[in-house]
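Here is an idea for our session: we take a single protein and study its fold together. Start from the sequence, derive the backbone structure tokens from it, and show both lines together. Once you have written the record down, we can walk along the chain together:
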Amino acid sequence: MIIGGVAVIAAGVARQTIDVDATVLGRESDLDEVLAAFAQQGISPRIENARQFARERQVLLLIHDQTGVTIEVSFAWLPFEEKALDRATETNLAGTAVRVAIPEDLIVYKAAAWRDRDLSDIERLLVLYLDAIDLDRVRVLVAEIGSALDDPTRLASFDAIVARVRKA
């Protein structure tokens, strides 16, 4: 499932990105099989010891050999991530059918990353989808992320974004 900037673009937000972020179900993914599947598409590890890095950090760092586009594939283990994979929708991107996280789940992924670009993505997704998402569910997940990351202000900051969108 695509989860990064490309997914935000697929959800209708005009923005730029230079990489592809995706996730696969950790408990059903064999690292060697994942690497072999990517190799068949001309996608290779972009660092030495990519297998070891993936085992330690649960992310596979890749590069598309022909274009040089970088790809990060995370291995999903958390219940939220498994549900997000189940809820993903198929969309056509440049003539290829791909599974993409729904906007509600993208907001949660972005709330975990919490960089300036992610905050902008959250706000822009909320502008488009505020009435279509389960805001109570998202708030609970944002609060859990804040707690896990020892950031007690994350939910209040998210609520401020929601309030700003509602005023607009």
The CA atoms of residues 136 and 142 lie 10 Å apart. Residues 1-101 form a domain with the Nuclear Transport Factor 2; Chain: A, fold (CATH 3.10.450). The beta strands are 19-25, 43-45, 59-64, 70-76, 89-93, 96-100.
